[in-house]
Queue: 2 jobs
Job 1
Amino acid sequence: MRSGPNAVAMSTTFPELFDRFSAALLPAETPDATILRFRSIARAIRLDSHGHAEFDPKAEQLAFVCVGSAKLVARASGGREQVVSFHFAGELACVPGGALHAYSIEALTPCELLAFPVGEFLDLARSEPAILSEVCDRVMVALHRASEKSVALGRKTAQERVCSFLVGMTERIGVRQGNGFAMRLPMSRRDIADALGLTNETISRQFAELRMSGIIETSGRSLVTVPDIGSLRDLGGYMQLPERNAA
Amino acid sequence: MRSGPNAVAMSTTFPELFDRFSAALLPAETPDATILRFRSIARAIRLDSHGHAEFDPKAEQLAFVCVGSAKLVARASGGREQVVSFHFAGELACVPGGALHAYSIEALTPCELLAFPVGEFLDLARSEPAILSEVCDRVMVALHRASEKSVALGRKTAQERVCSFLVGMTERIGVRQGNGFAMRLPMSRRDIADALGLTNETISRQFAELRMSGIIETSGRSLVTVPDIGSLRDLGGYMQLPERNAA
DNA sequence: CGGCGACTTGAGGGACGTCAAGGGGCGTGG
DNA sequence: CCACGCCCCTTGACGTCCCTCAAGTCGCCG
């Protein structure tokens, strides 16, 4: 592992970081010996805002986000970047190894991670089925998000992609505000563009249109409020699910 | 689960199907009682070519492909289809549940599957860490493929997408032929288009260009030969990995 | 061998990218 | 606390790649 120029020393101690990981993924009955082995293969990564962590391209990693938020980025030829996923505190990111693109994790806000080589991690997890099960669940959630994202990237218009994105973010980090939701997006327009396969200009234009239609309101660069999540969902290009009425 | 109009009775018996699943995913030391429980939650699905299987949209499924090849399809509004992944015999497909798009599995060739409700499957797997570990590995492979695909859908030109696709297919189903590889693609141009976020016309045009440049040769509708996989990879828009020379 | 459907090829249009310039939020320093 | 300035965001004009629509050909199965 190699940290970028913005890697920086921060406040949280390693034991504190490990405790957050442990609380989220290791069941209470995990033997101390096993916990210690996990500790021994965990590497702390502390990133300032926009700091990045590169990994050995041949070795797949599991990265647990202890504090802050980050993006998993893939690089293609010609300096093109694709944001594969956004991750918030408490989530697990899978950084592929041996792939045809170069992956890295970049901090959206000051961010602290624990990185594990996936091979050793799974070897340890095998001794505790509950851990393996939890990891399996989380990886499947990531796979489902990736599948839903494929539909957006492959078949949706710019407006639908932006609306889908906002629906997803509202569900993940939105806080209730009256009848609607509000959220502070930690990522830039450019990050959103790189996640949706668009350009920052197109994101700006779509945001402007959504503002005009009253679908969203914005304040400053990062605060977005959604008065009616239903209207946003209607613009997301989703399949009309028959049980929508029943719900 | 609900099978489409092309679902059809075929030759392989349920025990034979289950044996293929068992050989691939259940370790030799699995207790008979556990194996029987897996049998009891497995549902056989036999599909004629182009037959499709719809599942309860709320219940996530794991589908093991015993025989043939299939595609996992997501549907968005307006009849738009996105092929999320292709699957060949011996592979495991995750069919999302509770999603905002409608998923189904459709046969590319006559195809036999075993479908498991994911909750019950993982409950059983928890008793055998080796099974959980194998499933976890396979899901992570699927996630990596999805991540690589995000880059293609989000940031690559039509030619790069087609070349990436052919590189991937060559690795999965190509057979050595002289210095190159040959393969019989079981999916139509339209299927490829739906997987790459393009149209069948664009696929045709890209195939034509690759034929002109001597990068590929085709014979009939489905046979493709790749004289030099390196040239194809060079056109895939991949990151130039530094260790490429070392390999 | 005949017909259907998938594939191919062409012409034209549209959604989003590219390039460019101006405005404003937000952090910094005085 | 306020002023400054960087950089992100916004907005406009134009270009382009791929989609759409259409017609014709060919492979594959009966």
Job 2
Amino acid sequence: MIKFFQHPHLLVIVLLLGLRTTCEQSIGTKDGIRCLEKEREALLRFKDELIDDYGQLSSWGNQKDKEECCKWSGVLCDNLTNHIIQLDLHGASAPLGGNISVWLLEIQHLKYLDLSLNSFNHRRIPQFIGSLGKLQYLDLSDSWFSGEIPHHLGNLSELQFLGLSAYAGMLTSTNLDWLSRLHSLRYLRLSSVNLTMATNWLQTINKLIQLEVLYLSDCHLPTVLPPSPSTFNASNSLYKLDLFGNDLSSSCVFPWLFNFSSGLSYIELGSNKLQGPIPDDIGNLLSLSYLSLSQNQLEGEIPMALGNRSSLSYLDLTNNQLTGTVPDLVLSFSLKNLYLDHNMFNGTVTQSIGSLYKLECLGLHSNHFDDIITESHFFNLSQLRILDLSYNPGISFDFSLGWNPPFQLTEVLLRGCKVGPHFPTWLRTQTRLYELDISNAGILDTFPDWLWELSSNLDDLNVSHNNFHGVLHDFSSKFSTNFRTIDLSFNHFSGSLPILPPNASLLDLSSNKFAGPITNLCNETNSSWSYLDLSNNLLSGQLPDCFANLSNLRFLKLAHNNFSGNIHSLNIRFSLHLQNNSFTGEIPTSLRNCTSLAFIDLSRNKLTGKIPTWMGNTFTSLVFLSLRSNEFFGSIPSNLCHLSHLQVLDFSLNKISGAIPKCLNNLTAMIEVDNESYVSSFSSGLQSYESASVIWKSNEREYINTLRLMRLIDLSSNNLVGDIPAEITSLVTLVGLNLSRNNLSGILPASIEQLRSLDFLDLSRNNFSGGIPAGVSQLDQLGVLDLSYNNLSGKIPQNIHLQTLGASAFEGNPDLCGLPLNKTCPGDEIAQDPKIIGNASGMKDPKEEEDKLISDGFYISMVVGFVFGFWGVCGTLVFNNLWRIAFFKLWNSSMDWLYVKIAISKIRLKEAFHKFMNSLRSRFFVSENVPKQEK
DNA sequence: CATGGTTGGG
């Protein structure tokens, strides 16, 4: 009662309602109107507090012609009593907002209430909904409610259907006791409700003995031990169970699962932490038609008990560590979908698959199957639509030249299989294709012209990493209007650049032998193009004017060609790579409009002029800026210090003069561990296309994954004067600093010891004087130090790490003394300990030199970055083929690099880390070419 | 029965 008085408006409403009820005959129609006046009144008041931007409730009103509320949209009245029994106000196409008024309580006979897919702006679910005691159906899913689910819903004892799924854990329930009172519940959906604290979830579910359908995906369910069989009282009616994405273990899930009688027909357990073998008991689930155990850590073979059951039509075991052959017995004739991708299966699976005459989708991607596939394998598979045999290096094909397959495929994915040497002619019969990937498939052939006109639905075409040669003819009039991606990269295509589909978004023609000008790019208005990579070809001439019209272009990569002339009229959103061409003139002012650029590489051209001051104010998201090896002059504008996301600044090999700006400490990305701008580009997926070449310790290398950890300032080989501003030493995450080959002078700042992440420090060939600050010996991540050819004096700090860097780091400073130089300081004894000093002559053995390419410190920090970065992006990649492939490529290249690194590393960390990396690698990308681990 | 959204339906 006290609570009641805290809400005086409730009192008023109840009094009003009471008055009406007594004054009114509830049954009987007036002028053929069935609608009960008090219910109409309540609905109008209910509507008053809603926001109906889309006019979903425009039929609700108090005008004379709208009197019949039983005809209002979403309203259903009972045929006999005329009471409103159903309100279907789901907002799939026209979401409602605002507030859910307590006037709803006046619709006391309501059995069905659907408010799903609306937009209630983080409001709480009203407690009073628990007072609509006649409700049998309640759906509040995905309506932007947030907070704790009110336990009052537990009063709805007639409820059979309850949908409360939420967006990304906006709703929580810390204790599910309220749920156990809903004895009539047949359907329950709490997907994405945060149930971290609901340790009683399993007990609660077990009390719902009428339950038929249960969705608990992405709920953060805590792992609990299943109840002991004596207390177990599970529903016999459950037939559909979805526990996707909960990190549940085998010991939690399986014992529980197998206590249900044989009625379960749909089991989704993907993305959990199921480990060990698939239990034989799975064979007791006699009604099983859908089983997904994907994305777990299951090992061992497919149990025979799963074998040949007439009901199974969908089996997904992808992304586990399953081994062995796939026995014929397991392959049920009723299977329509069979996904075994990313496991370690071997043997010949394909013969038995040939009898699965209902098969529509077959995924065997990334296994170790060994087989020669012939026409007879496919004889019965007339329903097949999707065929993915990618990354089974042991699979090859033997089809007769005129083979006419019994199926019409929509997806053909044969990446990394032995398809070649000739282009598979049977594809010519497949006229419904929308995705074709025959990349890296050993094809040595010319490109078949008919492919361009094969299917009007072709979306994605990837023939990269083969040996295609010859000229591509102009088939622009035959292009599929659906083209999204075309990847012809890493082949030997020659001749002039073909006319490209105007509606595609990703076009990669890089690493071929296309030659000559690219003026025919401008034949169309290519406003859909988002990614254009023509790098590593023999293209030349000036850039055509049309680039400014490519209004959606995020990536433009023209690097490593022979383009010349001025760069003009560009309109790029994210990444611009023009390095290694012969561009002349100044940085174009049109770049001022490209304010969202994150990567600019103009290195190795013949560009000139002053570095524009507007750059610092324009590119607020810039991460990478290289003007290396051009003919820029003038001083470094201090405006550049506004580039707070900048990680790589490379102005080396120019004619830049003046002093180093003191404000460099404003480059905050070089202070912070994680760069917001970079991380956001990473999570948007853009990053998976990005790479950048960095000169790292005299070697050019392509940084892809690890780029996000790189922090580099390279101003070497210019005409800079003055001293090193102490401000630069506040860039504490800086990994590389190269100021060599300038005319810098003064003493080295003592605060240099703050640069604890520094792996590479080159100050050689300047006029620095004074002593080497003792703090340099604190830089224990340093892999390369070069202070040679200055006027430094005094004693080299005696520190084991510094001395192992070699004498060459200090030579050319006549007044320096002490180890590792051969020159003893005045008054010092010669006290060499060969074990510590090693080769004091300054000569390093080549192996050691290689080791320092990337020092241990950078390598460790990469691991840290990897752990954080990888997981964030992996989930989105797994399901998007394009990104997945791109990422996979990057992954492999970075892994190769790591293995090289590890092989030559002398650190103890090696073993532990190696295990860790291997477990990751085998879990997610069980793939070929895993280098042997060193003992 | 109840799978669509400003997000996955694996």
